[in-house]
Amino acid sequence: MKNHYDVIIIGAGLGGLTAGLILSKAGKKVLLLEQHNKVGGYATNFKRKGFTFDVSLHNFGPIEEDKNLYNIFRKLGILGSLNYQGFDEFQRIVFPDFDFVIKKGITSFASKLYELFPEEKKGINNYLNTVKEIYNELDEINNSHIPVDRLQEKYPMLPLRFPNLVKLVDTTLNELLAQNIKNKKLWSIITNLWWICGLPPSELASILYTFPLMKYYEFSGGIIRGTSQHLSNLLAEKIQENNGNILLKEEAVEITFEDNRVSGIKTLSGKTFKSPLIVSNASAYDTIRKMVDEKNIKRKFRRRISGAEISISAMQLYLGLDCNPEKLGMKNHSISLYETYDHEKCYQDILSGNHEKTFLCMTNYSDFNDGGNVLIGMTLDHIKNWENLSRDEYKKRKDKMKTLLIRKIEKIIPDLSPHILVAELATPLTMKRYTKNTDGAIYGFSHSTGQSGVNRPANKTPVEGLYLAGAYTYPGAGYSSVILSGYEAANQILNEQK
After folding, report:
1. CATH code for the domain in which residue 281 is found
2. Where among 165, 194, 216 does a domain terminate?
3. Does an H or E element contain 229, and which?
4. Average pLDDT rounded to a whole number, residues 81-89
5. What is the secondary structure of 91-111 as a DSSP string?
């Protein structure tokens, strides 16, 4: 029947695209609705005056042979077409009196820490051993594909199979460090990557931080040539090859119900599509609060989602240059610059809009991109720093932030300004406008202890026929995590139908 589908997916981010491809490959009649004019969510690009800019990708992470992500891409049929390029080093980190390149292999990082803090060698070893154990346990969960709702129901073997995850599920990163290390400067160096999770070490879930830390430090990660749009387009093309239907510029606004289960979608343009199964890759916060009528959802679940803390957003400066930044002295593909060792103070400065004192991550895309010599600077930001501004005030603040961020980059590349041909700034309002994420969030729900690991929302909701995918669900934010969430949501549907 026309406009009737086996599954409707809301949102063509990587989670929705992955779910759509798994389901369409299984023979399901799939409809994917996307409010933007292109697929990908944050995994997209845009062009300005001959330059092509990746919206968000700094480091895709490693794709290790026979590991979870590698196997998912192989099953999706896109492994050979990814154009993935691995890095020889992770990044350079620059503190006020500490400048160090993190090379591939966590033992290399450990050796540098031993050299700088010999009195902390035992504590460093203990911490890194715990990190490895957590990483292995999370990797086993991901590879075994145990649905997170089973884990949340106190899966009987959980304490035996995953003792560190059970023990540390409510432990912050600072609390984990305090068990092993005394030197606070060393704490700051070890936790330098806190911003990729969106919370300072005093609030950040330790199990959430250790997984990317191990991946990036051990394997360095890599990037997709041609920007992340290449990956999003690959997934979309495969969906259409499997007779899936993708509608762009079609925003879902209401989930309809019949006989106490989902029955379809109404869109902003007034169209109606029918399906007994829906996977929302949109903001889980908006999905539950705005798309589902209160009478169709259990109060406890609605309160849980409504009361969840939304993550922070970001500010990004996109620069098109007349030469490769490497020629101007930027020898590393990625550099994180820290104005202070105090990450807690840095986070508070971000919240208050005092970006003079915040960190900045710089990424040179020029060798991985056919769209010209491109340098991107990124820091965290909060939408409240940009709300309630007039058009003129908004433009003035953008211009001020452009100047400030360029000045920060020039601490690493002193002669940058004369080589800038294009300078574009994206704010939290930009993130919200193009992705419809609540408050322009880039990590979904924040990665606090109460909202990480098995405490994060499961793919399957208490609403009959409604599933969630993306950064708001388990395992969390990041390219590989949202791909995994879409993969798990789709497979849970298929397994239940068996």
Report:
1. 3.50.50.60
2. 216
3. helix 229-241
4. 92
5. EEEEETTEEEEEESSHHHHHH
Backbone φ and ψ of 50, nearest 5°: 90, -5
Tokens of 206: 């330790």
Q: Measured between alpha carbons, how far is 333 from 250 in angstroms, rounded to an integer?
A: 37
Examine the pLDDT at 154 and tell me if it is beyond 70.
no
Q: What is the pLDDT of residues 206-253, one digit of tens each?
A: 988 988 888 899 999 999 998 999 999 999 999 999 999 999 999 999
Structural domain harbouring 392: 313-381+387-426
Predicted confidence (pLDDT) at residue 276 exceeds the cutoff of 80: yes
Residues 208 and 131 in one domain: yes
Residue 344 inside a domain? The answer is yes
Classified as helix, coil or strand, 468 is strand
Q: Which of 144, 128, 220 is nearest to 179 (CA)?
A: 128
Residues forming a β-bridge with 258: 261
Average pLDDT estimate for 322-346? 96
53 part of a folded domain: no
Q: How many domains does the chain have?
A: 3
For residue 188, the surrounding DSSP H or E stretch is helix 184-190
Q: Does the pLDDT at position 376 exceed 70?
A: yes
298 and 281, same structural domain? yes
370 and 414 part of one domain: yes
431 closest CA partner among 445, 422, 441: 441
Across all residues in the chain, what is the average pLDDT?
93
Tokens of 227: 């920007």
As a whole number, mean pLDDT of residues 88-110 equals 93
Instruction: Give dist(CA 84, CA 436) in Å, integer.
Output: 28
pLDDT single digits (tens) 17-33 = 999 999 999 999 999 99
240 part of a folded domain:
yes
Helices 121-144 and 206-219: angle between axes, nearest 10 degrees: 100
Do 295 and 339 belong together in one domain?
A: no
CA 246 to each of CA 49, 236, 271, 350: distance values in angstroms, whole numbers, following the listed order: 29, 8, 14, 38
Spatial distance between the Cα atoms of 308 and 444, rounded to a whole number of angstroms: 10
DSSP summary character for residue 460: B
Do residues 211 and 263 share a domain?
no
